[in-house]
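WARN no homologs supplied; continuing
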Amino acid sequence: MRVILASLCAVLCTAALIPTAAAEGRDDTAAEELSPPLGPAGKQLIMVPEPDESFAAGGDPTISKILYVNRCVGGCQVYKGSINNALTNTSTIPAGNDGQLFTISEFQHDQATWDTLMQCLRDIFLPYDVMVTDVDPGMVPHHEAIAAGAPSEVNLPSSIGGIAPSGCEPRNNAISFSFLNTYPANQVLEMCATVGQESSHSYGLGDHLYDCTDPMTYLGNCGQKFFRNKLMPCGEFALRDCNCTGTRQNSHVKLLSVFGPSGATIPSPTVSIVYPAEGAAVANDLEVISEADDPRTVFRVELYLNDWLWDTYVEDDSITPPWSPPANYRLRPSGTWPDGNYEVKIVAYNDLGASSAATINVTKGSACTSADQCLAGQTCESGGCRWAAPTGQIGDACTYDQFCVGPNTYDGTCASDGNQSICTRECFTGVNDDCPDGTACLDTSGGAVTGVCWPAAADDPGCCSTSAPSRAGLLAQLTMVGLVVGFLLRRRRRA
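OK structure emitted
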């Protein structure tokens, strides 16, 4: 179920708008599924869990890659039945008796509105190998998304904006209903999100997401929605466990598993650096301000100085309304960094990994003349201090953090027990030990669930041995070269 927007939607949910078991042909269980609170634009979008036997057998178990968006030219007819079958125009959704015929009125808005809707739908399904069409494919397996009419035409309450049969597995030949004649013509993005959500319930997206940037949400007022490559919490207007996938759902990954990739080129974000200016003289407190934009939203922004990652912005875990993309992104290098010439690079990514970069050149103090003026492990090249890309793996000898490859590449850790300095990383102790072969997760803080990967004893099959460096000894001697145990890349959320 999905909803259309109004800021007062949460307080508009009244008994008068809630369908009940009195609706002909529905039992109490169905009535409960039709009783969510109101969402965007005061509409309810409903998913109705259906058993496997309520879907027509498609013969070929492969899920059809055809999404037929039906504008019901001249009106379209649907029969009430116990089976969902787009090939016979039969659906379990209308409230009535089996065999009862319902007529849904034609999409009432103009051709330009329809064209905009279809383009929006093709955009949100672009990453997947699925054909979005408004031409009836005939007697071949497909999903039919009725995008017309009003809920009263199938004996449902006027509060419902969309409804569909739902399950945790994809099904062929389902019919979803998006009652777009109840939407004003200027709400095309909400129409698009409604059709996207209702049609995807039959593709195994059996949950609603508590994030207003995805079509599978009840939350509005956040612009165009896309199936995001992001593990999002489930919920309508509050967090809850998911019906199908534990506590989170990734809409993009689910649809990718159903259809496979389309091979289409995903547009990259636009990005520019607005401060400082090209050729500027900067100081240690440098703050780089950039502007970036992407229809899917900007998921991550990175700051590089001479090809080394210094700071990162990552989109919030869950986005709720009212929300709009940050006006700009403010990133800065941490700590003290040496004087010299610098190429400042900002890289912006969307959630699918498409990226764009912008660069400028600045000078901090005077150009370097030798590596002695740089940080540990850096060289001085063309008047600027720089590190080479990290190559050190866990267990490799090291003298500085930036030699080591970390979980996010640039956040490696070089640690010493007083006898040797090696590349390491944070790990889970005990039975959850996730260190590579030849190393084990050594508890460095006394009973903690995390530690650091350290060489195991020769006779140690994987757990820490008494012949490995003792915890007390390592606690006393373990020092970080350059950075204190900060295993994960620092992330700023600043606008």
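Residues 34 and 154 are 14 Å apart (CA to CA).
OK
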